[in-house]
Amino acid sequence: MITILILVVVLGLIIFVHEAGHYFAAKKLGASVEEFGFGFPPRIFGIKRKGTIYSINWIPFGGFVKIKGEGGGHKDESDSFSYLKIWKRTVILSAGVFMNFVLAVVLLSIGFFIGLPSVVTDDLPRDRMSDEKIQILSVLEESPAFDSGFEVGDNILTIDDQVFASVDELIAYTSPKLNETIHIEISRGKEIIATDVTLEDLDDSGVAKMGTGLVETAIVSYPWYEAIYQGIKASISVTWQILIAFYDIIKNLIVAQTVPSEISGPIGIAVMTSKVAKLGFIYLLQFTALLSINLMILNFLPFPALDGGRVFFLMIEKVRGKPITQKVESMIHTIGFFMLIGLVVLVSVRDVSRFKDSIFGFMKNLIG
User: Fold this and answer.
1) DSSP 323
2) Given 24, 44, 187, 214, which is the most exposed site by the fewest CB atoms within 10 A?
3) 183-210 per-position pLDDT tens digit
4) Distance (Å, rounded) from C-alpha 71 to C-alpha 84?
5) Residue 220's beta-bridge partner residues?
6) Measuring CA to CA, which residue among 229, 231, 230 is closest to residue 101?
7) What mean pLDDT is predicted for residues 52-59?
8) For the chain, which domains are there?
9) pLDDT at 267 (0 to 100)
């Protein structure tokens, strides 16, 4: 139940902030907002103020905004979305994704002020670092680490009762121990796990490996004024990296006609949220910022049914000098919506296979 509550809070915050962006932009630029809802219908109750119904709804995932004339009607009324100039409509449609970026900046700024997990590099100020550790960044399938149940985010505490200051020191110790068994202690949240791992040659290099990607991390914190700068800088950097990843994903979808393994649906997000929450609040804060940027980029792709798709139609209207007929645009958005639903279903089915152990464990805990 805690996992479900955390997921509701995380996704609810991201979606609600997104919709709030549409709401404030519409109000500022002269479009009437008929309803601004927290959660999704059915409605629990609503209060009407200055023509807008502010409602609380039963389904607690985020919220929604209903703008007058958003569907193409009321074109002759000055407070209608469809009456506004193209640049104003573009701003209103873009405000949601902008607020997702602002949310990421705020969350990461708070994180850098409290202390955010970061990869140790030469340019990090040593006086800002604490709690340095060696962390598992990836786990190779069908490897000794995978068979031992190691997970991304686990911290390596000791190997054969020895503490290592760097990844290089650890690798130098384990590399010669081909086919030997080492005793390793890891931490996962507040849990300490001790196990024996037999090292293997996983790539015919003659070097002993356990099948993990390792990285040195530390908690890095800054004064509040510098934390804001770091939050903006990190948000821009993450946005660029995710854009590159989305480019590769879309290229694979078009060229190879396959859904890349990097894509996760609602089930995958739920599983990842559960795992990140176990690592601690600050990791969850960081993960929420990443999800917000992901939603920002995804929602602004020029694809029907998304905000980016609707902006794309406004650009066509600007070039043509007149809009595409509402019937045609609605049909295209409907087709796009069902294509997105189909992709979500396809990815979710694959997520069930990928995360079946985690899902089974969750259901067992829920029932038991």
Assistant:
1) P
2) 44
3) 999 988 778 989 999 998 888 888 889 8
4) 13
5) 116, 129
6) 231
7) 90
8) 2-114+232-367 (no CATH), 126-220 (2.30.42.10)
9) 62
Q: pLDDT digit string (tens) for 249-275?
A: 777 767 765 655 556 656 666 667 777
- Residues contacting residue 205 through CB under 8 Å, at least 6 positions apart: none
Instruction: Please give the Cα distance from 27 to 31 (Å, whole number).
Output: 6
Q: What share of the chain is helix, strand, coil (3-state, %, to 5)?
A: 55, 20, 25
Q: How would you label 126-150 residue by residue, b for 16+ Cβ within 10 Å and e otherwise? A: eebbeeeebbbeebbeebbbeebeb
Residue pair 201/209 in contact by the 8 Å Cβ criterion: yes
Could you give the CA distance from residue 166 to residue 242 in angstroms, rounded to a whole number?
28
Query: Which helix (H) or strand (E) element contains residue 36?
Result: strand 33-49
Tokens of 163: 């503490």
Sequence-ordered strand ranges (E) for 104-262? 116-119, 129-139, 155-159, 181-188, 191-198, 212-220
Q: Is there a contact between 181 and 198 (Cβ–Cβ < 8 Å)?
A: yes
Look at the pTM and tell me if it is higher than 0.90. no
In angstroms, the CA 62 to CA 40 distance is 8
Res. 138: pLDDT tops 90: no
